[in-house]
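As the work plan foresaw, the team has encoded backbone shapes as discrete tokens. One protein thus recorded appears below exactly as we store it.

:::
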Amino acid sequence: MQHWRRVFPVLLVTLTACGSSGTPVPVLGGEQDIAALAGQWEGEYYSKSVGRSGSIGFTLVAGQDTARGQVVMGPKTSGVSQGASSDSTRVVSQTGSQTFQISFVRVTGGAVSGRMDSFQDPDCHCPALTTFQGRLHGDTLSGTYKTRLVNQAREWAGEWWVVRRSLEP
């Protein structure tokens, strides 16, 4: 697997092609830190422990302190080979997908952290909270996330990664 002042990649599903899609996400950090995240980012997340995966997509325009993007979670996967290599196999049905919004992102010295808006977990139909952290390495942003079910003693972790694509002028 190849390994983010206001933007998340995170984590976690199906990217909408339009860079202006999604709710604006505040990106907190210094000007240079935020500028390092400028671009269109596309990637995935995966949790082996619960068998969920999905796409991540966001765009941060240079000179702005907000990003636009979303995370889409599909149903549980089957026949998944972990990793982002070209020989990986992912079987994900987009039927029953859910779209999630990123609440905020903080970036300092190439380290990124943030939180997702609360969402309804598809298995227990109860509220869930997700936090994420990661590091910027060139045009790749990657890290881990944790999801906790509210009012339950259940938590799981996973990995996420996004790769920068050029923004059209």
About this structure: Residues 24-165 form a domain with the Lipocalin fold (CATH 2.40.128.120). The first strand starts at residue 24 and ends at 28.
